[in-house]
Every structure is written in structure tokens, then in C-alpha cells.
Design a protein that fits this description.
With 171 residues, the chain is mainly alpha-helical. The protein is built from 8 helices and no strands. The chain has one domain. 65% of the residues lie in helices and 0% in strands.
Length: 171
């Protein structure tokens, strides 16, 4: 079976739009979902251990806190919709998560000595993540970068779990 191609490169056909959606939904989206949520759980788990249960108030930049508070308020005004989650970290963008880790890298280094390299990797998939979030096609290089980051992050989580370096706590 031929690979699905971007519907925008052909004359309009509603079936091609649906085929594109299915291809995108089965490709990078699940990997980005996994990456972003593993980063949330990892960040929360490290900071709750290193700082305590009120880590969000103590170590997160006030601008990020304000943006998240606004998002939470906006969701609260529309209770008929679902919410991203119960903890503030679920309202933070991938760029916010990178900033939180960067500003607190000294708390991550004892657990993940190469945390700076991970921050760079998260930043490198931020734009492709937004492209997928806006329902558009990725370049081959962006797909590969997401695939590798996904696989390597899974390995890191497995390594930390096996070594009992972190007790993973879902926020």
C-alpha cells in the first residue's frame, strides 16, 4: 500500500484529507503525546522529591505561573469542557517545561547528568510539535528527530526506573 501523502499537493479530494488525518494521527502525534507527558511526569517526580509537594510555587518562573493560572481560569469558566489535568503542569507548554527544567537543572543533574542535552532535544522538537498541533505535515528530518527523542526518552525512563533513581509520581 502506498504511503499517504499531504492532501495539499493534489487537487481537492475530501477522502485525501481524511487519509492525511489518519496518517498524521498514527504517526508523530502519539510519540509527541508520549514525550510531552513523560517530560511532565519526570519534571514533577524530580521536583516533588527535590523541593517538595509545593514545588510549583517555589521553583516555577512567575510568568509561567501567571500564564498557567490564566489557562486554568479560562477552563474553569467553561466547565462543560474537559480540562488538561488537575495539576498546573498539565497547562504548561513544552517550551514552559523546558524553561522549568533549565531554571532548575541543578536539581536534575544528580539524577540525569546530561540534562542540558535533553533540554536541547526538547527544544528541537518544540516547533515540529506545534506543526503537528496545527494539523500540518512534518519534514522527514522532524519526524526522525521526534522518533529518536521518543525512543531515547523511553530508554531514559526505563533506566531511571530500573536504577530506582526516581520514584515516578503522576501529577
Amino acid at each position: 500500500m502506498a504511503a499517504t501523502k499531504d492532501f495539499r499537493t493534489y487537487a481537492f479530494d475530501a477522502d485525501r484529507v481524511s487519509a492525511s488525518a489518519n496518517a498524521l494521527g498514527k504517526g508523530s502525534y502519539p510519540k509527541l503525546y508520549t514525550i510531552e507527558n513523560l517530560v511532565r511526569v519526570l519534571t514533577h517526580s524530580v521536583l516533588i522529591t527535590q523541593v517538595g509537594p509545593d514545588w510549583w510555587i517555589k521553583v516555577v518562573d512567575s510568568n509561567i505561573q501567571a500564564n498557567v493560572a490564566k489557562f486554568m481560569s479560562d477552563y474553569g469558566k467553561r466547565p462543560w469542557h474537559g480540562t488538561p489535568g488537575g495539576h498546573e503542569i498539565y497547562y504548561a507548554y513544552l517550551s514552559d517545561l523546558s524553561k522549568i527544567i533549565t531554571l532548575n537543572s541543578h536539581l536534575f543533574i544528580p539524577i540525569i547528568p546530561d540534562i542540558d542535552q535533553w533540554i536541547v532535544r526538547f527544544e528541537l522538537i518544540r516547533v515540529p510539535r506545534n506543526i503537528v498541533g496545527h494539523m500540518n505535515w512534518l519534514s522527514v528530518n522532524d519526524r526522525k528527530r521526534i522518533d529518536i527523542t521518543h525512543d531515547d526518552l523511553q530508554k531514559l525512563i526505563d533506566k531511571l526506573t530500573s536504577a530506582k533513581s526516581v520514584t515516578f509520581v503522576i501529577p
